[in-house]
Specification:
4-stranded antiparallel sheet; 6-stranded mixed sheet; elongated; 2 domains; about 280 residues; Molybdenum Cofactor Biosythetic Enzyme, Chain A; 12 strands; alpha/beta
């Protein structure tokens, strides 16, 4: 089972480190840890801008590929460039986003609980209480703008969180994650025939080129098709990569059985130096 995360915001594209990289990095670490605990593995992390129509095609593409869970972060605020609700409405296709009675109550309560005067009706602030038809608002326990929860084609679950990171995590942990634990009750590796998101093991290969490693790993994958196998270059020195990392991901039992086979296969390459580094997630 697969999950994807979409970060929304022009500011993330203007400065590729992001306007708040430390906070965003911490948030992503926690999200991926929780997503893995549901038995899903992260397949994509995408950054898109605030222009109209940027997000909807990404959501529809994820649905067409039968991605199990998509989490978006950002674009739910009151300003003219917060367009996630409009793009979600476009993706669902049931009509434009508009005020949701319950979400508007939450929004007014949030103003009042912070001793902030409730603005005059009809202003942009009301967008934080809007919800497209076909979606359900998600209460924001740490801020103002509600999140969104909906499904596309009945199989892709989408959850939209605010871009303010200290609001996103409480919403995720308190309002979103409990429902996902019901939706994906197996957790860990159970029920996932490809065993993704459970355990991994890594072999480090030195002394040979990637072109010598690739065919050996490709042959290995034909013997272990239910594992995810990746080849990654490391340790760039003077224009040359000195280490090749080969990683297996799958169920704990399958990884444990397959790693000796991969180790033997790689050791058969003349000049290859192999070391093992195991990692569990």
């Amino acid at each position: 089972m697969r999950a994807e995360i979409i970060l929304v915001g022009d500011e993330l594209l203007e400065d590729l480190r992001g306007v708040q990289p430390d906070y965003m990095g911490d948030l992503l670490d926690k999200l991926v840890t929780d997503i893995t605990s549901l038995g899903l593995s992260l397949g994509r992390l995408v950054i898109t801008g605030d222009s109209p129509g940027e997000l909807a095609p990404l959501l529809l593409d994820a649905s067409s590929r039968e991605v199990d869970l998509v989490v978006t972060i950002g674009g739910l605020g009151p300003t003219h460039d917060d367009r996630v609700r409009d793009d979600v409405a476009q993706a669902i296709g049931l009509g434009p986003s508009g005020p949701h009675p319950e979400a508007m109550e939450w929004l007014i309560d949030a103003y009042e609980s912070r001793s902030i005067p409730v603005p005059a009706r009809g202003g942009g602030w009301e967008r934080m209480g809007h919800c497209p038809p076909g979606a359900t608002p998600v209460r924001n326990p740490a801020g103002l703008a509600c999140g969104l929860a909906f499904e596309l084609e009945g199989s892709t679950h989408v959850r939209c969180l605010p871009g303010v990171t200290y609001e996103a995590l409480p919403m995720w942990r308190e309002q979103v994650l409990p429902s996902l634990e019901v939706q994906f009750p197996t957790g860990g590796m159970a029920g996932d025939p490809l065993g993704r998101g459970g355990s991994s093991a890594t072999l480090l290969v030195k002394g040979v080129r990637e072109g010598m490693v690739a065919p050996v790993v490709e042959e290995f994958t034909t013997r272990w098709p239910d594992l995810r196998t990746g080849i990654y270059l490391m340790d760039l020195v003077d224009g040359s990569f000195r280490t090749i990392r080969v990683t297996l991901r799958g169920s704990e039992d399958m990884v444990a059985k397959a790693i000796p086979d991969l180790e033997d296969a790689l050791a058969s390459i003349e000049g290859a130096e192999i070391s093992r580094r195991e990692e569990e997630h």
